[in-house]
Fold:
Amino acid sequence: MNKIVTNANNGLQGSIEIPPDKSVSHRAVMFASIAKGKSVIKNFSKGQDPLSSLNVCRTLGIEAHFKNDLLIINSNAKLSAPSLPLDCGNSGTTMRLMSGILAGQSFDSTLTGDESLSKRPMRRVIEPLTLMGAEIKSNDYKAPLTILGKSLHAIDYISKLASAQVKSCVLLAGLNAEGKTSFTEPYLSRNHTEIMLKYMGANISTDKNKVTIQKSELEPRTIEICGDISSAAYFITAGLVVPNSKIILKNVGLNPTRTGIIEVVQKMGGNIKILDKKTVSGEVVGDIQISYSDLKACTIEGEIIPRLIDELPVIAVLATQACGTTIIKDAQDLRNKESDRIKAVVTELKKIGADIQETPDGFIITGKTNLKGGAELETYHDHRLAMSLYVAGLICEKAVSINGFEWVDISFPEFEKLFSKIGCPEV
Ligand code: S3P
Structure:
């Protein structure tokens, strides 16, 4: 699908509810599937990625149905041998977390993915699982992954990567392994797995960047899913860069391992306020108010990177509107996402007139630039590219045309509807 985006000169105004968090939705359906009894998930994401996790759990014999806004899961805590390959679609989270759950089962299974997922690195999960006694066949450390169910034993794993997917994979394997498994990472990545496993009664503890888990049974729970800060990021950026804008984003997850973008906006001098903080199902939630701002450049590096990794494409758009040179480094893993996001962002933003350079581990962006637009842009089958380019289109002089806009549905099917609600021209 091709999408034309024109500039939003009149400004964006109003208040919108941010749809459910993708990361938390994946975990809720997976963990409810291995807890004994009935779990109720409120506000499960309708994005294609979390639906891939739901389908995988169903293929493993779990009974799950929707009742109005609730997803109800009934499980006897046992998964059944699948009669089909487990299709993870475009979702790296589904494949990497499910590998941890499946490695210690008493049956064999195969995880498959679409073209993009089949190119993504899986050595990062195969290696620690193999150390735990797992046996996994792969296509040169890429999908499809055939997991031969084995008895697992605990390990103390020191990871070079700060990756929530790898951490979660090891912890989920540890849930089913003899002994105490620990995972240490260089910087703290998102900790939704730790929070939800604890909320469901697992024997898990954390000490700075180290988390330790012991074999445990999970208890079913009611889990309410907060709004996704990674989805809110497109509205935060649009509110800051489109003149005459003032918007409120309601019910946004504010877990400190995800709020790097808020810290960057504060460092850039943006008008951003957090209102009404509370805790829901163990996660911090609140409302965010943003308005059009004069921004200054900053450097983004080190421990903050895992706390804003998915927001970097739209932060690159934000940086084109900040005075001075913004440097983003230590983000080499951006090249291993749904697309090579460093190359893709630089190629596409250059087409509309941005002053942006590619570095091995990030970007150098100089602003403030009047983006010219008037170009045909590509999404590389990547939802975050599609949404970031849409936001850039809102401040271009001439309309842009975005090819493959349907990829937005991977995480955020409500994206355009919500933008039109705050005054974006519908073309
Ligand atoms: C995710 C972790 C991150 C993130 C991805 C979702 C998760 O990946 O980029 O979109 O839900 O655990 P990495 O763990 O590979 O950094």
Observations:
- The first helix runs from residue 22 to 33.
